Amino acid sequence: MTYRVLISDPLSEDGIYPLREADNLEIDIITDLTPEQLVEKIADYDALLVRSQTKVTKEIIDAAKNLKIIGRAGVGVDNIDLKAATENGVIVVNAPDGNTNSAAEHTIAMLTALARKIPQAYYALKNKKWDRKTYVGVELKGKTLGVIGLGRIGREVALRAKGQRMNVIAYDPFLTAEKAEQMGVSQGTVEEVVQAADFITIHTPLLKETKNLINKAMFEKMKPGVQLINVARGGIINEEDLYEAIVAGKVAGAALDVFEVEPATDNKLLDLPEVIATPHLGASTIEAQESVAVDVSHDVVRLLSGVPVKNPVNMPAVPKDIMKKIEPYFYLAEKLGRFLTNLSDEVIKEINISYSGELHNLEVAPITRNTVKGLLKPHYGERINDVNAAYLAEQQGIVINENKTSDGKDYTNLIKVEIVTDTEAKAVSGTLLKGFGPRIVQVEDYRVDLVPEGHLIYIHHEDQPGAIGRVGTQLAKKDINIATMQVGRKDVGGAAIMLLTVDAEVTDQDLQVLLDLEDIYKVSAVEL
Prior knowledge:
By secondary structure, this protein is an alpha/beta fold. 33% of the residues lie in helices and 24% in strands. The protein has helices at residues 17-21, 35-41, 58-63, 82-87, 100-116, 118-126, 152-163, 177-183, 190-196, 216-221, 239-247, 286-304, 320-326, 328-341, 365-380, 389-395, 467-477, 508-515, and strands at residues 3-7, 25-29, 47-50, 69-72, 91-93, 144-148, 167-171, 186-187, 199-202, 226-230, 251-256, 275-277, 350-357, 399-405, 413-420, 425-433, 437-443, 446-450, 455-462, 482-489, 495-502, 520-527.
């Protein structure tokens, strides 16, 4: 059978070579189509390849009666209506790894240019100044590079830095001691990395947890004369705090490819001679542009040949009758995973998910994907979705186990999610109560009845008179209102928990005030 492929944005011939090689594909390259023209044409095609120019709207997808796959030659899919694609059973794929090498090389280029003050010296020479004394740099050999985020790009940067004979210390929530040893890098917390490093490079997504990660408090922990590189996302480094740290002489230099607001032509950091910058060029190479096209072309060939795709970004089609039964559990499953993220700071080795009661007869794989998505989303942000969650967990060496039983104990349906690390196991269970919606009904070994949403404070304490009152008093002093409270205990006078839903997000300082109270030994903020 022959399939028709439409390429509606400019892609290089090298990039679409896998399509040309397939003997069952007919390829049309028609760029600059108006939305109306694309609606008219799309019904004849089985696959659509785009970059960022074409906006693949619901109207276009609804008109695409034969469409099976949309390929985005790049990372972001903001120009594609994922909901409409999913509803129509159309798989959307992208190319998350295509820019890895280019971004890593750009980071090393920025690192070297920063260390040797190459842009400043070049600018002086262009202005007819032969000044060798001002632009004395430092060698990279023997220096310590701190890598925050050891994902696909961070790993490549670390390996290249080792080639420069640098020492590397890294932080990543999925970095185990074994992985660090295999790579020949040291492992540390974010604080340990910034304290030890001569140069610091950032390779994390921009999330709520990473926004302003490098701030005034972190600058105070750094060595005098430290230098920073950011080729990841603007906003991870607090730009105002960076400016002040450079002016104060704490930071000797910064190399920035990304900014909180782009274009960044008016950013005051660019007025500092210690700062070198490029206009978001991390992925801007001929090879990277070809690579992303090659990746999505391969996925198109895979799908049209009946083989699973490598980089899906939307939910695969599920029969409507099955979806109607399992979809109500998606929200609960994601929240259970998100809650567990806050129970352990250790690297997850296993995720064990048990389905009980009426769930044991249902297709639970999509529910599992939502659970894993909730667990990993604080680390991956919008990159993770229902489809690639299991794949990303596998990349980190996390084993996912499913178990089904008809015995729902006291519940019609029950989902129990457990994470296992080298030293501990933590679990949380939830159910759907008919007429009341999702509930978390067990946290670790404690029975609770909690709506999984909002701002929570999770407290471990000794079951002693006055503990609850002291917590309430301190929160009142901080003008933090308690909306609901759940308490649980194992034995009278023994270990106990409090789960408080509050009206506003709490700060680290708020948590420390509670931790300082008598009989309280652990306090966590949980955002659901």
